[in-house]
């Protein structure tokens, strides 16, 4: 039988309209599936953060809310609207950096692939653009003109290399707001909602740089999570002599009870065959090469700023001035900003230069000195030091090869030799 097509013009128009409506409904359903796939998870535990529950909204209630948070909260209309404006948010994030070509449109594919990778693992992706809806709603503990903001700089490590001291010093800068403690958001707490992370941030003004510090990020976090969160994130890496770091890590874990008090350092890292146990954590975490390779897959080198602990201790103002330049803030640290504590053999912040009373949450004492954990009190036996140095040499060389010899040349613990200048005759 032949298909009977409508001959009346009016009936034919109605037929075309019905076809158009059917096409629109099909496209609408496809768009909703795409939205569900990229939906951010940022509803707080047991708290909708004041956002509207839209389970009764007919426009968004036809099967879109099958996926809920682990507390049973539905994803709401505000989140959908945000996701539908993803391209606009992406444009905003690409223009927030002051560095040269850190992120450009050609890298959109890389960012999309990274986001998809994380979504496949967790079912959601945390992004800095999702923070913007919460900033003003999370200011109950802040004074007028200040709110809690997402960090745009992270001290990612290295453990036992002075990252906490660096955070405390930077927190004294009037243009820097440093988070207290270690949030561990990108390694241990990534399944937490964004509002959980935002509560860990300090109150800050628009002009301030917000910094968080979690030294374990370098070894334990997946850099893809930080990159997906903010591809323009500035990273600071506190580095130090890997041999000293290994001993310091041993003492630290022994103090925490993770290593028996009866165990000595040599027995811990040297096997019965006399070879170094390169597979134990305190030794592996002193290998800076492999984590740096992972970070370099996602971030440009001008987004990773290394700071040597020895240099920071000797002349902290000089190192801090370089970090000020990196962060784009004015110079406030001078030699007169510090006083030397001969008992601790360390420089402390001058109470006359900074309001150290406001830095208590950043482990700064009344005299301006920073609380520090116990450091190695005795030198390593020479033969043991040589074994460790030999083991780390190849990794240090690779690490410096990535950062550039001009950077490592100033580190006393690297095999890169300083360029000597011949004295005039």
Automatic annotation (TrEMBL):
Polar residues bias locations: 46-57
One Pfam family linked to the record: Sulfotransfer_1
Domain Sulfotransferase: 152-353
Keyword Transferase: yes
Keywords, alphabetical: Disulfide bond, Glycoprotein, Signal, Transferase
Record-annotated disulphide pairs: 348-369
GO molecular function: [heparan sulfate]-glucosamine 3-sulfotransferase activity
Positions contributing to 3'-phosphoadenylyl sulfate binding: 248, 347
Region annotation Disordered: where it falls in the sequence: 38-57
Signal peptide limits: 1-29
Protein name per Swiss-Prot or TrEMBL: Sulfotransferase domain-containing protein
Organism: Owenia fusiformis
